[in-house]
Amino acid sequence: MTSTGTMLLRRLHEQSQTEVMTRARAQFRGSSEEFLTLADEYDTLAPRLRGRFLDSLGLSSEDFESSQGTTLSLAVSAETGSFLRNMVLAHKPARILELGSSCGVSTLYFADALSTLGRGTVVATELDPDKCASLRTHVRTAGVDAYVDLREGDVFQTVAELTGTFDMVFIDVWASAYLSLFKQTERLLQPGSIILADNMYTAEDAVLPYKQYLDDNPRFSTTTLGFESGIEFTVVVA
């Protein structure tokens, strides 16, 4: 990754973390000292326990995005971004479908890997016009816009209009929409396609129908990777 891209990602990660902490503090009914103690406790928890911890406080990752009428960037972490980049370098996908791109942090990791390979496209999907504008600026600043095809609008409508197949799919939309959106996406998959779905721990209850659908379907081989917010790693078998 270029120095410009690295600096941009560092800034975006810091911005996202600040936004989430600010939102969580605004929702937390307690003193600042209590909040800081809980934040430290959250950091020490195993990833699979973090969603339940947030629930116990009356918080959730979806609450962070939907309340108070403010839209957050909700970027993937640097660790998750590095994982996504390495997955692209290993799998060498010609087409990646990103369901829920926000301001483009995960898009940058995908596009940078494609740039390293010298080929491929990530189809990024996002509804919010402001986030789309930010995404366009970010990929242009990082010099990877040639590898990004941004589709602005409702993700269900976008998927309905897509043709061909995708070698990799990344799901990071509203957790309650995972299953219905995935079912619409299935026709775009082929044997060997990889599906990565974020927030399997931080939105455990909401994504359960999606997880159960994969577990019960012989077309898919799936496992939950136990780091960060929990990533469901699925391979299309047939």
In DSSP terms, counting alpha (H) and pi (I) runs of 4 or more, how many helices? 10
Question: Would you identify the CATH architecture of the largest domain?
Answer: 3-Layer(aba) Sandwich
Assigned CATH superfamily of the largest domain: Vaccinia Virus protein VP39
Largest sheet: 7 strands, mixed
First-residue to last-residue Cα separation? 35 Å
Identify the overall geometry.
globular
Compute the CA-based radius of gyration: 17 Å
Beta strand count: 7
Low-pLDDT segments? 64-70
Strand order of the largest sheet: 3-2-1-4-5-7-6
H and E order: HHHHHEHEHEHEHEHEE
- Broad structural category: alpha/beta
Q: Beta-sheet strand percentage?
A: 15-25%
3D structure, described in words:
- Helix 5 packs parallel to helix 6.
- Strand 1, helix 6 and strand 2 form a beta-alpha-beta unit.
- With 238 residues, the protein is α/β, with parallel strands linked by helices.
- Helix content is 52%, strand content 15%.
- The chain is built from 10 helices and 7 strands.
- It has helices at residues 3-27, 32-44, 47-56, 61-66, 78-91, 105-117, 129-142, 155-161, 178-185, 204-216; strands at residues 95-99, 121-126, 148-152, 168-171, 194-197, 220-225, 231-236.
- It has 2 domains: 3-69, no CATH class; 78-236, Vaccinia Virus protein VP39 (Rossmann fold, 3-Layer(aba) Sandwich).
- The model is unreliable at 64-70 (pLDDT under 50).
- It has a 7-stranded mixed sheet with strand order 3-2-1-4-5-7-6, with helices on both faces.
